[in-house]
Amino acid sequence: MIKKSVFKKLNFPAYVFHAVHTFVVKNKGRTFRQKVYSLLNPTPTSGELHHIIDHVIVISVLLSVVSIILETVPWIHGPFQKEFYAIELFTVAVFSVEYIGRVYSCCEEPKYQEPILGRLKYMFTIGALIDLVAVAPFFVGLIFHETFDLRFLRVFRLSRLLKLTRYTGTLNTMYKAIYRERRVLFAAAFMMVLLVILTASLGFEFEHAAQPDKFDTIPDAMYWAVITLASVGYGDLTPITPMGKAMTVVISLIGIGIFAIPAGLMASAFTDQLRIDREAFENEFRDAIAKGRLSPSDRLALEAEAERLHLSMEDVDRITDKVKSEIMSNTGALPEGIAPEIVFEKYRQQISHLKVFSLSKQSEHVELMLQESGNATELERQIWLLIKQKSN
Q1: How many CB atoms lie within 10 A of CB 287?
Q2: Is residue 26 a contact partner of residue 47, using CB atoms and an 8 Å limit?
Q3: 28/287 Cα distance (integer angstroms)
Q4: How far apart are the first and last CA of the chain?
Q5: pTM higher than 0.85, yes or no?
Q6: pLDDT in tens, 23-51
Q7: How many CB atoms lie within 10 A of CB 224?
Q8: For residue 294, which of 111, 161, 250, 287 sits 20 to 30 Å off, Cα-Cα?
Q9: CA 314 to chain centre
């Protein structure tokens, strides 16, 4: 299956044609707005065409950012000025169509279903504002380039990189990790601010008389305090008095420990949050399997969540087998799509349990209970007798 899928993608025209055809068939009878929404968002009717559009947007972002960076190199920008402008026109066209399409189709979501207020509400979301900032510098420069010097707007074009956050859940995971550990991080930040103020004050007291031009005020000394505590310093501002040098050694050693606390907290919180998210994904999958059958929307939601958590197909398969095995052990039911190897292993386990029962001291009581009418079926009695004969 994987080799066939890769082969289809290598034959790009046929792959695109098949994706378009599938999209048209799946969305037959739906409104234009619903089709636009399916193109830009993962839905049960999106198909492969949605992934192709996502890839086009991602490639456009990367192409635009590389172009913006290379434009600042004079010997590259000179010969290829027209090419850079063509790339800018192409990427702005892609981002503009995407922004208009998202604003137009956002009413398909329940929270934005109002035609006017819903769209206004969506336009002030973080994702929509990022999309707007990605194209606004081009149109502002196009309109006011003869009136104002708008070269500074080039910096805002780099905000297009933020569009990639829509295709990864890393920032969302980081935000949840920070929010969960916010009290501990606040305490660490308070300690760092306190240490910076103390260091800057001592640096001012020890060095002001010897270097009045560099340690003129305590706010001036804060720059030296921060770079000394956070690193080994840049060398542009250093104490020259004996007390100042001694204090710098002590403060630098303290800073190594204090300023490393947030980094350690963030690394630990991020790892814990990934574990929590993956456990939540496992529980979601367990709930979906418990219903008896996965609906297309359930499959789509689970695939999107697995992609957000950066789970490989091996991880997803492992979680799937684990959940199905647990359900079968707890309920005795056979979930849809369970591997034959798991069924066979479960069968062997059940036979082993019956052998143990047949050899136990309570086997005679079990046999008497089986003989009573209504306690067991004839097939169950025959299986018990057969296992007991083989065990003896």
Answers
A1: 11
A2: yes
A3: 31
A4: 49
A5: no
A6: 888 888 889 999 999 888 887 788 888 88
A7: 24
A8: 111
A9: 18
